[in-house]
């Protein structure tokens, strides 16, 4: 949530991102209105993508987990195609980092965490998406905490859910006395 001039509050991530993009320079959306509209369409897809790619973290049973995992290739394929248009740059719009990159980074990061808990093995099948993910993970702005610390917090939260995948989380090593 963001409070603006002690008058208004914005509570949805995409609304906050759009507001900040319109009020603070440099803009992260393209200046061209058509390109900007295309980028907005892709940020509108983020909730569906997130659910498809990280939904396995919430699956209660092995069967539900496998159903959730089965959704990942379709979500990845849907992004692979526009990423083919990015040219030489590592980001969604090529060389320029955008709100699309910022919107997808947390969910790609969580996919990587989940893949390390119990190997899913889907990202390797999508070379452009894999390269994009690696570029996003290399950006310091992707990480609000040191990456290992954030992954440990994520694992703790997954373990707390007591979902199917939580059983694959290795216990933290005991501290040496």
Describe the protein's architecture and organization.
- The chain has 177 residues and is mainly alpha-helical.
- It has a single domain (33-165), classed as Glutathione S-transferase Yfyf (Class Pi), Chain A, domain 2 (Up-down Bundle), CATH 1.20.1050.
- It contains 7 helices and 2 strands, in the order ββααααααα.
- Strand 1 and strand 2 form a beta hairpin.
- The longest helix has 22 residues, at 62-83.
- The protein is globular and about 45 Å long.
- The model has no long low-confidence stretch (mean pLDDT 90).
DSSP, total strands: 2
Quaternary organisation? single chain
- Helix and strand pattern: EEHHHHHHH
Computed over alpha carbons, the radius of gyration is: 18 Å
Which structural class do you get from the secondary structure elements?
mainly alpha
In brief:
It contains 7 helices and 2 strands. It has 177 residues and is mainly alpha-helical. The mean pLDDT is 90.
Defining key terms:
177 residues; mainly alpha; Glutathione S-transferase Yfyf (Class Pi), Chain A, domain 2; two-stranded antiparallel ribbon; 7 helices; globular
